User: Which sequence fits this backbone?
């Protein structure tokens, strides 16, 4: 075998393997997804003598509200959407106006993509925050009434939702369980799994939230993985096959040249 043939043989072996590892490296976690925080249980499964675990992440239950237009709405109405929510009350003299201004900036950032995310501001003072009060507050901050709800519900339901579903007291350990007052925006994915909380006054946190919202829309359901990822485990076979075809082609060409 001459020098050129040896170089060619090495190339057809090395290039496919290099290509495989490049693809594998850049396709794995190519996009950083916001982490999940709270799980309900971890299931252990045994198959072919191997034990695997599957984490069941906590999904916030459905809850119904009345929004600033007097409409009955619920989280179930938002299937397929990412949710960003906070807690407020209309006569709040301190943090709520600032949070509303920053939520408005987020709303404006996604004004051309209203189907991606729903913003929800949940009143923690529903006795005072009537529908007209919610509408007045929403109009003050020029909210889009379709993509940004200001809502009221039964106080017990709201507080149960905040502490048991969103885990607000874990995200903010200084929170008063008797009266929710937190600077955090909470991010839920389309399955209503909490994927993060962000200080509504922190510029870096708000920038991260603005990035994480569309990133979650890229996330593939584990039950429906992308076609490309399905092929990753057999890429070595594919590349080896390509290399083998090239080698056979070279051998046949050599024989033809001799003949």
Assistant:
């Amino acid at each position: 075998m001459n020098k050129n043939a040896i170089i060619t043989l090495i190339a057809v072996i090395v290039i496919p393997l290099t290509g495989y590892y490049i693809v594998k490296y850049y396709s794995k976690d190519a996009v950083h997804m916001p982490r999940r925080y709270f799980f309900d249980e971890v299931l252990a499964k045994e198959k072919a003598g191997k034990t695997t675990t599957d984490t069941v992440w906590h999904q916030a239950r459905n809850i119904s509200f009345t929004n600033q237009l007097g409409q009955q709405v619920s989280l179930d109405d938002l299937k397929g959407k990412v949710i960003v929510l906070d807690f407020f009350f209309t006569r709040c003299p301190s943090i709520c106006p600032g949070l509303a201004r920053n939520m408005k900036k987020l709303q404006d950032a996604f004004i051309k993509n209203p189907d991606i995310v729903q913003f929800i501001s949940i009143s923690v003072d529903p006795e005072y925050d009537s529908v007209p009060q919610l509408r007045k507050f929403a109009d003050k901050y020029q909210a889009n009434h379709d993509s940004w709800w200001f809502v009221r519900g039964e106080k017990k339901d709201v507080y149960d939702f905040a502490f048991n579903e969103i885990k607000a007291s874990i995200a903010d350990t200084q929170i008063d369980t008797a009266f929710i007052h937190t600077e955090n925006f909470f991010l839920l994915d389309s399955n209503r799994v909490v994927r993060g909380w962000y200080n509504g006054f922190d510029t870096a946190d708000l920038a991260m939230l603005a990035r994480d919202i569309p990133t979650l829309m890229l996330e593939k359901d584990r039950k429906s993985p992308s076609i490309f990822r399905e092929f990753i485990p057999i890429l070595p076979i594919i590349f080896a096959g390509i290399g083998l075809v090239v080698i056979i082609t070279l051998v046949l060409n050599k024989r033809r040249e001799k003949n």
